[in-house]
Here is the input.
Amino acid sequence: MSTEIKVPVFPESVTDGTLVAWHKQVGDAVQQDELLAEIETDKVVFELRALKAGVIEDILAKANDTVISDQVIAHINETATTSPSTENKTPSVETKNQAPPPVNTASRSPSAEKMMIENGLSPDAITGTGKNGLILKEDVQNYMNQAKTESVSKATPVETSLPQGERPQKRVPMSRLRTKIAERLVEAQHTAAILTTFNEIDMQPVMALRKKYKAAFETKHGAKLGFMSFFVKAAVEALKQFPQVNASIEGSDMIYHGFIDIGIAVGSPRGLVVPVLRNADTQSMAEIETSIAGFGERAKAGSLSIEDITGGTFSISNGGVFGSLLSTPILNPPQSAILGMHKIEPRPVVVDNEIVIRPMMYAALSYDHRIVDGREAVQFLVTIKDIIEDPTRLLLEI
Here is the structure.
């Protein structure tokens, strides 16, 4: 009996994808839920996994082919065994109901054992960090993340080396993600009336607060206390005061959103992605920091889903982590504004008529002038400045 291997059904915003690489070939045995291939879309990379156990019967689409939703690209024969040529390379598969090998539970926690069975992992491949080498759930997750990172790296290597010669050059096709980023940036420049307003923020109060409580925060919540959670909370308060900044334009209509979903720009091996922090106005700082850390890990591993990066009513980009002192961030359509954070540097400023040295950050707000007036944009950024320079305002929501 043969089972069709189909391309996943893409969201409406994604028309097609590119089959990046096959991890199995004709005649290879596969287990249920084993990784077969990867498909790159304009937004993320899908992992295509086997729905049944069996042997790869045929492959109908090769690497770098363009594929569409629900397209049949291969077949799995559920009753076949591996051919003699592949017998030594891959164990034969009997049936989809084949029981997993017995697991010795003496060296791993129950949650780690469950995760290994669900993912078909061998305990011999995982290093335990618990007492006496006990394998913890975190060890299994780290192993899986590392495997995904290596898989992505092998599937889409970044070739930056140049050929030898006096004036060498190399032509490399843009990835689908990079192409889509370019299209969206040009679209934003052509369709929106983008202006940018700037201000500078004294980071000393937040830095002092963070220094005092970061150890206790991490002990209690299991997450590091960064600057981003302060800016997310400040942005939430500012968006409540200036709903135009949280709105978007659709045709000739202005859409005002009764929720706050903030996109956090993060780098990935394939380019910039903006996963969305849903209902940021209802989240605690610990929840925000945990979510952001998770975004970063999944972006590096290439495991962000379409749902992770779809939507958003406002965005924040932190160029300061790369050393940027000042920049003008570009809108993420159809959003009407984006906040740019930058590098913190000690600079002389005047405080109470005296020149003092303070850790200062330039902040930028790019906005669509079609829906946000200059006065509102300036006041929005001033609100963020006031909150960051006096974090107690977050407690009072003022």
Summary: The first helix runs from residue 84 to 87. The mean pLDDT is 84.
